[in-house]
Amino acid sequence: MLSERMLKALNEQITKELFSAYFYLGIAAYFKELGFEGFATWMEAQAEEEFGHAIRIYDYVFERGGSVELEKIEKPKQDFASPLKAFEAVYLHEVGVTESIYKLVDIAEEEKDRATYQFLQWFVEEQVEEEATAKAIVDKLKIIGDNPHGLFMLDRELGARAPKFRVMLLQPTE
Ligand code: FEO
Predict the structure, then answer these.
(1) Rounded to the nearest whole angstrom, what is the distance from the C-alpha of residue 155 to the centroid of ligand 1?
(2) Minimal-distance CA residue to ligand 1 atom 1
(3) What Cα–Cα distance (Å) separates residue 82 from each residue in 25, 32, 78, 85, 160?
(4) pLDDT tens by residue, 102-151
(5) What's the pLDDT band for 5 if we cut at 50, 70, 90?
(6) How far is the centre of ligand 1, averaged over its atoms, from the C-alpha of 45 (Å)?
(7) Which fold has domain 4-165?
(8) Of 14, 101, 107, 157, which shows the fewest CB atoms inside 10 Å?
């Protein structure tokens, strides 16, 4: 059984992950308006992944006999000064998510909740990857600067990451 404190923190994390999905979708819309289809696709795929993170915790809370309580999601930012600024915002966002996952791990330890501690290890590893991926793109964008050819190439590279829902939408229906 989850302690009240653990349950509250997990529920807060569900809302944070749902906000993350919204955050990425907002940046996807920003890139779509600019015509950077590849960057937009990458952000959409990330939004989808964030929804998956929320569902992972949602399922876990039910598995442990807890109740899920969804909160209001704030409006995301959709305006950035440049692709670099948008990806810098992504990196900073992920650093914040890592902090919040670490707080959950601390609570699991304090509550002596071994199962939740174990469950959270997937998120700890995921955050290492999320931060590293965002940082690598920020570094590339810094090298590219205002070079249109470089931006075009990176846009094409990142566009290779197709969100599953887009693939599903493209499949013929009966
Ligand atoms: Fe769900 Fe990007 O962390």
Answers:
(1) 22
(2) 50
(3) 16, 13, 12, 5, 21
(4) 999 999 999 999 999 999 999 999 999 999 999 999 999 999 998 999 99
(5) very high
(6) 12
(7) Ferritin (1.20.1260)
(8) 157
Spell out the domain ranges in the chain.
4-165
Banded pLDDT at 153 (limits 50, 70, 90): very high
SS3 per-residue string spanning 100-163: HHHHHHHHHHHCCCHHHHHHHHHHHHHHHHHHHHHHHHHHHHHHHCCCHHHHHHHHHHHCCCCC
Ligand 1 centre distance from Cα of residue 128 (Å): 10
The predicted model gives 40-46 an average pLDDT of 96
- Which atom of ligand 1 is nearest the CA belonging to 97? 3
Ligand 1 residue neighbourhood (C-beta within 6 Å) = 17, 20, 50, 53, 94, 97, 130
| Nearest atom (ligand 1) to Cα of 126 | 3
Average pLDDT of the chain to the nearest whole number: 95
Radius of gyration of the chain (CA): 18
Q: What is the pLDDT of residue 173?
A: 67
